[in-house]
Amino acid sequence: MTDVTLDAFIDASAALLGLTIQPAWRDPVRANLTVSLRMGALVMDFPLPDDAEPAPVFTA
Amino acid sequence: MTDLQWQSAAAIAASVANGTITARAVVEATLSRIAERDGLLNAFTDVTAARALARADAVDAGQVSGPLAGVPFAVKNLFDVAGLPTKAGSAINRERKPAERDSVLIERLERAGAILVGALNMGEYAYDFTGENRHDGPSRNPHDTTRMTGGSSGGSGGAVAGGLVPLALGSDTNGSIRVPASLCGLFGLKPTFGRLPRTGSFPFVSSLDHLGPLARSVGDLALAYDAMQGPDHGDPGCADRPADPVALLLDKGLSGLRIARAGGYFRANQMPEATHAVDRIAAALNIDRDIELPEVARARAAAYLITTAEGAALHLGRQRTRPADFDPDVRDRLIAGAMIPAVMMVQAQKFRRWYRDAVLRLFEGVDAIIAPATPCSAPLIGQKTFELDGVELPVRANMGIFTQPISFIGLPVVAVPVNGPMPIAVQIIAPPWREDIALRIARHLESTGIATAQRPPNQE
Amino acid sequence: MHINLPGVVAEVTAAFDRYETALIGNDVAVLDELFWDGPHTIRYGIGENLYGPDEIAAFRAGRSPVGLARTLGRTQITAYGHDTAIAATLFYRDSLPGKVGRQMQTWVRMPEGWRVVAAHVSVIDG
């Protein structure tokens, strides 16, 4: 994802979440999100069967 | 007789029990050491002197007794202490109402006779591996006060390694007990996830938060751990298991134990001192094989995601109204964490079950695994980057690369300190609910002198 | 607004102590360093009003290094939030018998570190 697209995503998400991002914070927020999305891609890349259960299981 | 400040909790308890010293004298000496040295070490954020002296008098009057009677201890300031607002290393939390009740683990230690002397510095909201704090200043490593203690239980590491108290409690989500244990040269116990109740503590990531002790000896870890065990319904994450006392299991030695060294991921991205420490421990344990955990990098990634997303959710309200009051490093991660697509979180938790099952299958063939606790010994306070395998990487994000994949699936770990110009620890990792195995191995290493909590250089 | 966050007070105290040592020893380089190098910096001295870093530096350069020793009293450092602090102190000099000096400094955290952006030094009967 380009910086421009990511910035648009950050702005839209911030607006949705009610967060204000000061201009000086944009670079580190983008950098952190980039890292997290990379981690996310690593996790998404792992094929899991449809019946894979999440680790935490709710008990009624 | 060893100077009081370096005595173990066990030795102090024995001296108080046989009348050699009063609990009051112990506490007065503790308070005076804190007054003298904490200005530099900056481990404490609150000292509960009046309360401690009153408890000491109660011990001396025979109103309180137990295996820790008279032993001073302190707790990371995310633990509720009655009468104090629970800071959790933040500026914002300072405005909270004072806690009405101590956290459950404090209550249990005090029921065993231990005496709380104060609350300890930590990285803001526990989202930290350095022990530095924008509001309270950095906790300083007693072995070299220009260096960090590590975090987020920075003050816990500094207070025990600096001889201020023999025992401290910390929390560990991705490494926050094991990292300061490593950088400060201490024994640290991160028990099995769900072993110790978190009731009465400020959270970070409910999916991953553990609480546990730091000390200068294995015996002291075990004493504290046994006093704290047992279910508590106040923490939904606490397992409904009766206590498994370990005190009598420590000296069983190594016979019958199959121990392996973690290979692959755990052999890369580290400074020579980390590899060297693991290899010394491996030699002392006669380890002759490596074992490879599957998909470790992915496990670390999943833990990273769950941490940032749950942390972001916890703090969203505060992020909306007063983002400038956060540590900027914490704030910028929490803002980003709020933007992670939900599907990644769901997948991370599903992967977690896969990874847990795969690693537990490995434990069918081995009783314990050793791995580095940190990629290096203590960096300088304020140091932003370090070089791992020739690559310059940020300290904050990478100090937990070896701890994070283990706490991700809640395995019990004892961090054992290896001596050197600066100390560094090795993780002894056991299967779920087998803290006894990790402690037994740690005790063996301690008794042979390979793993000891060295004293800071000017305190010999 | 958090007043007197311990970590902030500790940092400003260290900077204040460094300034004091430099003042008594007339370490002009450190004195110049610790005053903010910006056009709005003001120093009202005992006998002079100085505007901006050039006037302040000129004063430092021309000051006699003799008789600068002093004793401080009632030093109070107050931090407002993370980036601003007021350091106020009384001082006593042998050359000013029966007098008490007052030094007030406004410190601000700049990218380079803590810097004095405004200062006022005066003397009254003690």
Provide a short characterization of the protein structure.
Chain A has 60 residues and is mainly alpha-helical. Chain A has one domain (3-44). Chain A has helices at residues 3-17, 26-44.
SSE map:
The complex is a heterotrimer of chains A (60), B (460) and C (126).
Chain A: H1 3-17, H2 26-44
Chain B: H1 9-17, H2 23-41, E1 44-47, H3 49-60, E2 72-76, H4 104-111, E3 115-120, H5 154-161, E4 167-172, H6 178-184, E5 187-190, E6 210-215, H7 218-228, E7 259-262, H8 272-284, E8 290-291, H9 296-321, H10 328-337, H11 342-362, E9 368-372, E10 385-388, E11 391-394, H12 395-398, H13 404-407, E12 413-418, E13 424-429, H14 435-447
Parallel strand pairs in B: 2-3, 2-4, 7-8, 7-9
Antiparallel strand pairs in B: 1-3, 4-6, 5-6, 5-12, 9-13, 10-11, 12-13
Helix pairs in contact in B: 2-3, 5-6, 7-14, 9-10, 9-11
Chain C: H1 6-24, H2 28-34, E1 42-44, E2 49-51, H3 52-62, E3 71-80, E4 84-92, E5 99-110, E6 113-125
Parallel strand pairs in C: 1-6
Antiparallel strand pairs in C: 1-2, 3-4, 4-5, 5-6
Helix pairs in contact in C: 1-2
Protein described:
- The complex is a heterotrimer of chains A (60), B (460) and C (126).
- With 60 residues, chain A is mainly α.
- Chain A is built from two helices and no strands.
- Chain A has one domain.
- Helices cover 57% and strands 0% of the residues of chain A.
- In chain A, 18% of the residues are buried.
- Chain B has an eleven-stranded mixed sheet with strand order 1-3-2-4-6-5-12-13-9-7-8, sandwiched between helices. In chain B, strands 10-11 form a two-stranded antiparallel sheet.
- Chain C is built from three helices and six strands, in the order ααββαββββ.
- Chain C has a six-stranded mixed sheet.
- In chain C, helix 1 packs antiparallel against helix 2.
- Classes of the chains: A mainly alpha (60), B alpha/beta (460), C alpha+beta (126).
- At the A-B interface, helix 1 and helix 2 of A face helix 9, helix 10 and helix 11 of B.
